[in-house]
Design goal:
Order of helices and strands: HEEEEEEEEEEHEEEEEEEEEEEEEEEEEE
Strand order of the largest sheet: 1-21-20-19-18
Structural class: mainly beta
Helix content: under 10%
Radius of gyration: 22 Å
Largest sheet: 5 strands, mixed
Number of helices: 2
Length: 365
């Protein structure tokens, strides 16, 4: 009996030690709490998509608002954007000119966010080479048949990604991971800045360490890759992690970061390995005021060789803004990157193999 008790306490002690090791790895790197979810607890729904008609050629990455379907493609010869009517498929026009002249740029981001300003639909574009922010008024551009920028703001700021507009003079910008040398990479974070004076107001640190080192892998910065979306009211940002089965929700008021990770999933101890076990988990995310829509893979990386078609991405995890897992959608067509239209309550995608555009009717949820 005494021997049995000793063995029992040894087992318990080992469990505690193992748990502490795991928590130490997460706690050493990650700057927030981590809560776990079981994807089997999500309500599974098979859902069919509906095809958008086309009288033109959709391509690149899309954003949709009511009747407007906006395509960004960096390979367009003279413009960055092509706008279509989502109901008829008719082309409305080409906008945002390429070049080095006034009101032109050599590169701008795809659309990450659409917002209303005095009933007009606006998006924020960052021209990194010119160091300028463009407030593109999409509504007025369509009415006039030419590109209209409400304002162009000088904005020299290195490595801006996901420029999210929050209010009249408040902007959130993402600073992605960057390789400092062959063994060390910075960790990504957000900055809250003023728009017109480019003043730093607050850092939002997702990780405790400003940089990490690993001499066993050339892919250190890739580990931190995320795709992000801002809640339409500007109160939160969601990140979906590519190489962990985890989403992060950042409170833009308090700076609090909370991670929601799938049970039995990989953790931040992966940073201390050769990372050959890295899988691809989340590919894309978009959101409305109620739900977060995250496209999920959960398998080995696919072939990226030229001419090889992308596989079928037919799983979408739906969370509320408190991180509660709600639905696991299984789709009939591939959904790699997604865009939520709050007007018609639809979730759109463009097929990367065929350039077809289709959507899910979110009222079915």
């Amino acid at each position: 009996m005494k021997t049995t008790n000793i063995e029992f306490y040894i087992i318990i002690l080992n469990v505690i030690i193992c748990c502490n090791v795991d928590e130490t790895k997460d706690g050493y790197y990650y700057n927030g709490d981590i809560q776990y979810f079981d994807d089997n607890d999500m309500t599974a729904k098979n859902i069919d998509s509906k095809l958008v008609s086309s009288n033109g050629t959709y391509s690149g990455m899309i954003a949709v608002y009511d009747t407007l379907l906006i395509c960004w493609n960096n390979t367009f010869p003279n413009h960055f954007y092509n706008v279509f009517n989502v109901d008829t498929g008719e082309e409305i026009g080409l906008f945002c000119e390429k070049g080095q002249g006034p009101k032109e740029a050599t590169s701008v981001n795809c659309i990450f966010q659409l917002f209303e300003k005095e009933s007009d639909i606006i998006t924020l574009l960052y021209a990194s080479n010119e160091g300028e922010l463009f407030f593109w008024n999409i509504s007025r551009s369509i009415k006039k048949g030419e590109t209209v920028y409400d304002t162009i703001v000088p904005y020299n700021n290195d490595r801006i990604f996901f420029p999210f507009y929050q209010s009249k003079d408040r902007l959130f910008v993402f600073k992605p991971s960057d390789m400092l040398n062959t063994e060390e990479a910075t960790t990504p974070f957000y900055e809250k800045r003023t728009i017109y004076s480019n003043e730093l107001l607050q850092d939002y640190r997702i990780y405790k360490q400003s940089s990490v080192r690993n001499s066993n892998t050339p892919s250190l910065d890739f580990f931190f890759y995320t795709w992000d979306a801002m809640k339409p009211d500007g109160s939160k940002i969601v990140q979906v992690m590519r190489h962990l089965p985890q989403i992060n929700i950042i409170d833009t008021n308090t700076g609090e970061v909370v991670g929601y990770r799938m049970k039995s999933g990989l953790d931040f101890s992966l940073l201390e390995t050769d990372m050959k076990r890295m899988k691809v988990f989340y590919n894309s995310v978009h959101a409305d005021d109620k739900y977060i829509y995250a496209t999920y893979w959960g398998k080995e990386p696919w072939s990226t060789r030229l001419g090889v078609e992308l596989p079928l991405f037919n799983t979408i995890h739906v969370f509320d803004w408190n991180g509660k897992p709600m639905y696991k959608l299984v789709t009939d067509r591939s959904f790699y990157r997604v865009w939520s239209d709050p007007v018609r309550k639809r979730l759109y995608t463009i097929n990367m193999n065929t350039d077809e555009v289709y959507y899910l009717d979110l009222d079915e949820l």
